[in-house]
Amino acid sequence: MDQTPPAEEPPFPIKKSRARFLGLSLDDVIRAFFGGNAVVSVIVLALITIFLFREGAGFFTQNRQNLTIYRQAGLEYVDYMRQQLDDHTALNRYLSDLRLRQFKYYTNKQGMDIAAANKELAAFDDFSYNFSDTVAPLRGLVSDLTDVASVIKTQFLVAEDKKTERQQLLAEGKVEEAAAVNIDRVDFDAQLAPLVGTLPMYKEVNEEFARQLEAVFKDTPLMPTPELQGRMDRFKELTHEFVFGFPAIEKNLENWDYHKEVPFSQSFSAFLFGRDWLTASFWQDWYGVVPLVVGSVMVSLVALLFAVPLGVGAAIYINQIATETERKLIKPGIEFISAIPSVVLGFFGVAVLGQTLRALSQLSWLEWVPGFPYSERLNILTAGCLLALIAVPTIFTLAEDALNNVPRPFKEASMALGATRLQTIIRIIVPASLSGIISAVLLGLGRVIGETMVVLLCAGNRIAIPDFSAGLAVITQPVHTMTGIIAQEMGEVAQGSIHYRALFVVGMLLFVIALVINYLAQKIVNRYRISIG
To answer: N or C terminus: which one in the chain shows less Cβ crowding within 10 Å?
Structure first.
């Protein structure tokens, strides 16, 4: 008889997963499910990257062709002269600003009415008109040369279109129709001869231009205050610098050669460092991303200026000071902001916030604020305030998590040594969680720099680099952003065109910026976890 004792039961039951699904255990199914999610995320990221680079990669080749046409048709030659017109226009704007300052002095400080102030400014107005008229001969010459260069460019583009048409007909097997397409070859040497031949005339115009400017300054009006007189003296210096630049422009025209090849690197530099984003122009399209990057950065910085104190401050209060009742009320309220659609916030900015901020800027007791009063209700400040609302929940949640991860003994040891609650927060809790707070700020930055609807509706959409000479008042100026330009123009461009690909390159740049910001945030978080561990 078998005397083998029965197996003892374990002290507690061990449940082994024996469920099977297609030959897999339950543990295998769970592992495959969560692992599959990670694989799907990697695949989606790879597809987005491939799509962006596939659609945008051809831009730089097309942009080089764009710059080549710009040179071969003589547009580059004419733009050397046109730069003088732009500089002269900037000097006229300086005079207009100087007149406005004098007008305010006479009406606000001297108590004159409008008619009396304008009468007092009659001599200055004559000086301004004379200064403005000095550029008339140069403007006429540039206008004539513009017509010449435009005709050359049009002829070249028509010839290129006919080449494309012939190639399409040949691809379709329509040989006879393709042979009937007449392509007129553009003889650049002959076409550009009248353009280049105006150089002696241009030099004569410049000499007369300089003489007229010198004559105008013989009747310079006196300014009513030393401060305004200093501005007039500065205007004289700027005009002299303007005149001293004439020989350099003449030298560029003498050395200009349309045969010179446009290097491929210029296609990149024109995009990355270009200061103009100009499309659908009869003259020349430019795709310079600098004004869009500056606009995105300015709006994001203003947003962080408001969001960081609010988000981090709220996290510290909720985590260290607030009662349980306050936590139940405040925390859901802050996190609820993230549930508001950005387009709703944008409408709020257009209809309410922008108008309210502009009305506040008109109050006399707020004139000391830089940029106040201002007239543009949609600007960096309006968009930044709304983006701050979007960033606060992100910064608040992540900063509070960082505060929660500070070991409790740190706080207890500080309190045991006699430190107050405020001293413990400032000197112990916050420094110990600083890495986590910084990562929260970076992730908040990544959140706002990728926002589209708010900036599209509230930033003003002016494609220009803000005037930083205004100091802090720069935040009251309208700008455009990388996300805004994509949303605004993508629906209007022809697929495969240089404009279409330029928008994808902007998306690539935005994608890289977001990846870098998130990478830095993750590095800081990992370092924070290691230091705590």
So the answer is: N
